[in-house]
């Protein structure tokens, strides 16, 4: 291992933890982006600084990390946010309003009236009460297989 590599290893061991904690705070807790910033900071240090001079690099590291966070923020603010075209359409189609809810309620009420009392009981216990097939069978006093066939 060369002297530069040993110096970089020492620098990493001494500064990476504090640098990472600092960047996490700057980024509001985003650990993944913080890892990227710390990695880029250390890479720039490796490429541009004389690691064997004995000069303290901590202030330089923290300043570069801060500048990278600021640059990233500026880039995100100038670039439009990417949107998946299908997501907004699905949201629009899945959102219901009061009219949809009222119509659905009326249709369900009518459909329930056409069911036998046995089927109504099973549907009520499983869907409206949130019971499992086994639990609904216990409440109704019938086997869970019968509950499954009636659902």
From TrEMBL:
Swiss-Prot/TrEMBL GO biological process terms: DNA-templated transcription initiation
GO MF annotation list: DNA binding; sigma factor activity
Record key words, sorted: DNA-binding, Sigma factor, Transcription, Transcription regulation
Pfam families: Sigma70_r2 (PF04542), Sigma70_r4 (PF04545)
Record has Calcium as a keyword: no
UniProt-listed InterPro entries: RNA_pol_sigma-70-like (IPR039425), RNA_pol_sigma-70_dom (IPR014284), RNA_pol_sigma70_r2 (IPR007627), RNA_pol_sigma70_r4 (IPR007630), RNA_pol_sigma_r2 (IPR013325), RNA_pol_sigma_r3/r4-like (IPR013324), WH-like_DNA-bd_sf (IPR036388)
Location of the RNA polymerase sigma-70 region domain: 11-74, 111-150
Family under the similarity heading: Belongs to the sigma-70 factor family. ECF subfamily.
Name of the protein in its database record: Sigma-70 family RNA polymerase sigma factor
Lineage: Bacteria, Bacillati, Actinomycetota, Actinomycetes, Kitasatosporales
């Amino acid at each position: 291992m060369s002297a530069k590599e040993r110096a970089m290893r020492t620098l990493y061991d001494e500064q990476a933890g504090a640098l990472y904690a600092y960047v996490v705070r700057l980024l509001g807790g985003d650990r993944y982006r913080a890892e990227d910033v710390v990695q880029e900071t250390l890479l720039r240090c490796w490429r541009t600084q004389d690691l064997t001079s004995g000069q303290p690099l901590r202030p330089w590291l923290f300043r570069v990390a801060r500048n990278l966070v600021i640059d990233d923020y500026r880039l995100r603010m100038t670039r439009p946010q990417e949107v998946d075209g299908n997501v907004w359409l699905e949201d629009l189609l899945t959102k219901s309003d009061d009219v949809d809810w009222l119509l659905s309620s009326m249709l369900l009420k009518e459909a329930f009236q056409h069911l036998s009392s046995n089927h109504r009981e099973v549907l009520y216990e499983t869907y409206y009460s949130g019971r499992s097939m086994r639990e609904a069978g216990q409440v109704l006093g019938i086997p869970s297989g019968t509950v499954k066939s009636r659902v």
